[in-house]
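Marked as duplicate of an earlier ticket. Keeping the data here for the record.
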Amino acid sequence: MNSPFKLIGKTDPCVRTQIEKAYHQLFSGDKEKERICFNYQTLKYIVDIGHSDVRSEGMSYGMYISARLGRKDDFDALWRFTKKYLRNHSGDYAPYFAWQVGIPDNTHADFYKIDSGAAPDGEEYIAAALLIAAKKFNEPEYKEEALALLKQMLYKNTQGKVRSMFDKERALVRFSPMEGNDFTDPSYHTLAFYRLYAKATGDVFWERVYKNSLAYLKKAVHPETGLAADYSEFDGTPKFTDFNPMSGYFSGDAWRVALNLALDYNWEIPGICEDIREDAKNFERTAIRRLLNFFTSNQPYLADYAVDGSDFPKEARTQTTGLIAMNAAATSALDLSKADDMALARPFLSTLWNTPVPMGTWRYYDGLLYLLGYLALVD
């Protein structure tokens, strides 16, 4: 392991201890204040504490994190829950996963789908987690399940108003497979995962998705600030929607773009898109430098902005743990042999290191991004 945390004097064992502490707190800590992962019979599920529901986002992140950390029992229990309660076994959305599931209460004796619709980032992380787990745990069945899901994500026959998750002409991920959602979300463009899928499936369409997503992100990421919007048109223009008037601004979804750029910069997947890897890495490092320089110049920085760096139209949140983690993760794509990049990286690494594991009402999203950020810094 060659973690950037060495810049602030942290050894590999210290970093591992920090990660294990966070994992323990979020997955098996105090039920009222700390944990987000709960047991149900032989299954496990992750709760968005602030909204009291289960989401494909959280389940997929939990699977990815547990696979990366070699926690097979947790991975298996999360995956069994996801298949049983989130997967649409029939209807137009089959075999996608419902993005929002309700928890048993006085009205419902069991978990139930609040919205059967699918959010493609959930499927993307589920597929990646299965492929990682297949290798980590030597379980070929996981890979078979990943391949079946990936095929449907690309080639699902339209049922009613539900289509494939990727626009076939543009080779870009949609915001939703539901008809009418002909725009995208910059944070859904998980570049490294597309190369992982291409390697696993042998389907060159994933290489096209990777190349087109890279070209798209060059337009969606602002050329001066490095910020992207939560949602955008396929040409990179910020997208404002009726159901989310703030969607054209840099906010909670867009924090994750930096993570996606850094992961792609660092993951080595031989034989896939090697003809454009140098160009990709140059863009990723440049975009991340711009982003971190923007936040450095705006201390104490906020969590919400217009993509050009001007003010958010409502009262912006102060920096959150999730954004702190994503900015720290981004430092892994800097050239840490250069003095300027070392100086740029250190404050972001120190801030994450000194930020406690999230607790309380909003620990779900911040906590998962906290762990994802740390994992990106040990790749």
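See parent ticket for discussion. The longest strand covers residues 43-48.
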